[in-house]
Amino acid sequence: MSQPCTNSTCKLESCALCHCCQQNVCIAHLNEHAEFLQYQLNPLADSINSLKNRFQTLHIHETVRDYHQKLEQWRLDCYREVDHLFQEKSQELDQIAADLLDKQRDQITHMHSEVSKLIQSKEITQKNIESYTSSIAQLNDDLKTNEYTNIHLHISPLIINDTLISLRKAKRKEINLNTLSSIYKETKYPPGSYCPMACNGRLLLIHQAPNLCFMDIESVIVKQILWSHGAIRDICWSSTLNKFIVIEENNILFISDTTVSVESVETIEKRRWFSCTCSDTRLFLTTGVRGSSIVEFHLSTLITAIKEWKSPNTCSKDEFINGIVYKNDIIALMIKNKIGKTVRLELRSCEKLNHIWSLLLNLMCNQNIAFRFCSLNYDEWLVADHETGHLLHITNDGKLKTTISYKAVPYYICLFDSDMLVVSAAKAVNFHKI
């Protein structure tokens, strides 16, 4: 006996059993069910096409090419260091040999002069002959000895192993700051310290008066330099130059963690600079005035200005760029309106400064202090709100994701490696595992 169609609104008898849902349906609703399944396939096909298009536009080959360039630069730097050491030791060897020869030449010249004087005076004695005969024999022995044994050369083998270069597939994870962990490590600020900081993946650069300090991920100071310059406005890292860039009010300085040195950049004009960021090939500086400008420089041995964006392309004449961060061909700007006392985060294209999105933050800028921020995984952002003591987690499409209450007043923040958040507060630098 046939059964009625499963569709409650249908009065026809069923004529088939749908194998995918195990329901008895009439021919009309069987066709309708098949069409519905077919309709669901279309979005899947569109999604697959979208994935194919995205795959074709992946920038991994550009990233690999950049890494090949960095490997090549490492190779050239190593050769340069070996050549430098070779030239230095070759000159040192030549100098040692020259010193030995000069000493023996002087002794021979002196003895020749003395013997000549005796020959001319004809006042020679047997004792003189015995003395000079002994001295000549000693000099002859010294010449033989010095020729073969007076220079000791020891060359240690150059040890090269796989640990010099590490390669692994990075595992990016989404950062959840809903429950920020307690402080993992804390480093106190001495009086007179400046809060800006930056990291290069291996070391964190901070100011601990009176020094600039390089810290590892366990907050251990591994190197330090006496800081005899002015107030630090901002710090960023250049992978191309392999140096930190420090911004004073009017000066730009390079800080090397390898040579532990400070170098003033004379090719950048003295202006009222305020914040900085780097791409692989470019340095971006903002000016510390209303209607702030953004100046772009080419990164090489000679830092040269390329272009300058001015108000109103950057911000209005009553606004001030508080901070700038580069990531993946995008420039993020923190813009403060002093009249309206508002703060917003804006994303612009790196090439033409085209607007992508902006988010007006629920902040009141009563203090004359910059609002700083950093990038997170998946193109998200984290803002330090010193006014209310919060951290603001922003999504990659410009929406407020989380507001985190922080126990101290946060001024600067950065992501150290992929799982350590560093917060620079008024009295300490705090490390949080995430």
In short:
Helices cover 27% and strands 32% of the residues. It has 434 residues and is of the alpha+beta class. Helix 2 runs antiparallel to helix 3.
Keywords:
four-stranded antiparallel beta sheet; Neuraminidase; WD40_repeat_dom_sf; 26 strands; 3 domains; 32% strand; 3 helices; 434 residues; alpha+beta
Would you give an account of this structure?
InterPro entries: WD40_repeat_dom_sf. There is one protein chain. With 434 residues, the protein is an alpha+beta fold. It has helices spanning 27-56, 60-121, 126-149; strands at residues 16-18, 23-25, 185-188, 198-199, 204-208, 211-215, 221-226, 234-238, 243-247, 252-256, 261-264, 273-278, 282-287, 294-298, 304-309, 319-327, 330-337, 342-349, 355-361, 373-375, 381-385, 390-394, 400-405, 410-416, 420-425, 428-433. It folds into three domains: 1-54, no CATH class; 63-101; 185-433, Neuraminidase. The chain is 27% helix and 32% strand. A four-stranded antiparallel β-sheet has the order 3-26-25-24, with no helix packed on it. A four-stranded antiparallel β-sheet has the order 4-5-6-7, with no helix packed on it. Strands 8-9-10-11 form a four-stranded antiparallel β-sheet, with no helix packed on it. A hairpin with a 5-residue loop joins strand 18 and strand 19 (355-361). The radius of gyration is 36 Å and the shape is elongated.
